[in-house]
Specification:
The structure is a single chain. It is built from 16 helices and 9 strands. It is α+β, with helices and mostly antiparallel strands and about 400 residues long. Among the domains are: about 5-55, no CATH class; about 105-300, Cytochrome-c3 Hydrogenase, chain B. It has a 4-stranded antiparallel β-sheet with strand order 1-2-3-4. Strand 8 (about 350-360) and strand 9 (about 365-370) form a beta hairpin. Helix 4 runs antiparallel to helix 5 and helix 4 packs antiparallel against helix 16 (about 395-400). The chain is globular. It is a peripheral membrane protein. GO terms for molecular function: NAD binding; NADH dehydrogenase (quinone) (non-electrogenic) activity; quinone binding. Its EC number is 7.1.1.-.
């Protein structure tokens, strides 16, 4: 990483009595596991006096792609916005689409989506904690975390046939129902995960090096968290008691309201954000357990007569109604006749409020698809959190925010 002298005009950052300032490029190669992002750091010795986040290295164009794909096809794109917990993105997208179309999904679909959303939350938190620990030299916790993520991948694969980008949700339901094997895998995960969680806790909670590198570092106050529009664990670690699962319930969360608590802290530092994520995983496990043991029976897709959902293959092959509907949806381009409206829908994902804003023009494709990603908001607060800290604190603060670069350049 090249060091270059800063211009004299920038010396006002810390006062004219300081003679030397340097610029350090952190990235744009992969800094640890935080993918392709760049930080332009202005240093006085080893102290960061200014930090400028620089985005745009993935050139994804996710939002523009939404204008050229229908409401089902677009899930292959949202999968890749946060590739750590992609199924949560799918659920959030179709939550907004169904809000636009006025579709009420079936009880069984609500429960399955809820379980998948919480598995995605645990998977995301595991990577965040494992990678943050790895950045600070704790390799073992990283391996323990990724072992559990493999178990979640197995569950996702059983449901959808794909491990990483499942593309499993559909307008009004799911690509397919889940079977007994999937339910058994979820129950097995509920039984085995607490031991792995306890192992990670024992490795990190009282680890002297980990504590020294995270406590009192990157402090964000409650007022600052609110003013910066932070959400999720970043906001709750600063004392902001807000969780869309409680405040604006969706899916089956209103029915499972008593199964989980909103985890908050007040310190607002890197260690508090770590602890909030650790406790949130246990609460997610409680939701999964309650949902899997109270799973309703019935269909996972809304009634085919509403002409909104893709018919089942057996209906396509064996009934004229199913064949006609499939033909109209795909061959004639006569997709959903949407209202000419604007709608915003949001879910509480692992990193915070993931929202989609759709402008519909009556066709089967969005006229405009806008994303409100949590990582974009949280990356913007990084300069505030890091100024005055040492350069060795950069990985600690960055890891505690869990920045997913695909959400930055949309």
């Amino acid at each position: 990483m090249p060091l270059t002298a800063i211009t004299p005009a920038d010396e006002d950052l810390i006062g004219a009595d300081r003679e030397y300032l340097y610029t350090l490029n952190f990235g744009p190669q992969h800094p640890a596991t935080h993918t392709t992002l760049r930080l332009i750091l202005t240093l006085d010795g080893e102290t960061v006096v200014k930090a400028v986040p620089d985005i745009g290295y993935l050139h994804s164009g996710f939002e523009k792609l939404g204008e050229d794909l229908d409401y089902n096809q677009y899930i292959t794109i949202v999968d890749r916005m946060n590739y750590i917990s992609p199924v949560a993105n799918e659920i959030a997208w179709h939550h907004t689409v169904e809000k636009l179309l006025g579709i009420e999904i079936t009880p069984r679909c609500k429960y399955i989506r809820t379980i998948l959303a919480e598995l995605a939350r645990i998977s995301d938190h595991l990577l965040c904690i494992g990678a943050a620990a790895l950045d600070l030299g704790a390799l073992t916790a990283f391996l323990y975390a990724f072992n559990q993520r493999e178990a979640i991948y197995n569950i996702i694969e059983t449901a959808s046939g794909q491990r990483f980008h499942p593309s499993f949700t559909r307008v009004g339901g799911l690509a397919a129902d889940v079977g007994d094997e999937w339910i058994a895998q979820v129950r097995q995960f509920v039984r085995t995960f607490p031991k792995a969680h306890a192992d990670i806790s024992r490795l990190l909670n009282r680890n002297r090096i980990f504590l020294d590198r995270t406590r009192g570092i990157g402090v964000l106050t409650k007022e600052e968290a609110i003013n910066f529009s932070c959400s999720g664990p970043v906001a709750r670690a600063s004392g902001v008691v807000r969780d869309l699962r409680k405040d604006e319930p969706y899916l089956a969360y209103d029915e499972l309201n008593g199964s989980f608590k909103v985890i908050c802290a007040k310190e607002g530092d890197c260690y508090a954000r770590y602890l909030v994520r650790m406790e949130e995983m246990i609460e997610s496990l409680h939701i999964i357990e309650a949902a899997i043991e109270n799973m309703p029976s019935g269909p996972v897709n809304v009634d085919v007569n509403e002409k909104m959902t893709i018919p089942d293959k057996t209906a396509v092959y064996r009934s004229i109604e199913g064949l006609i509907q499939h033909f109209e949806l795909f061959m004639w381009n006569r997709r959903w006749e949407t209202p000419v409206e604007e709608v915003y829908g949001a879910n509480e994902t692992a990193n915070g409020e993931l929202g989609f804003y759709i402008v519909a023009d009556g066709s089967g494709r969005p006229w405009r698809a806008r994303t409100r990603p949590p990582s974009f908001i949280h990356f913007a607060i990084f300069p505030h959190l890091i100024e005055g800290h040492l350069i060795s604190d950069v990985p600690a603060v960055l890891g505690s925010l869990n920045i997913i670069a695909a959400e930055l350049d949309r």
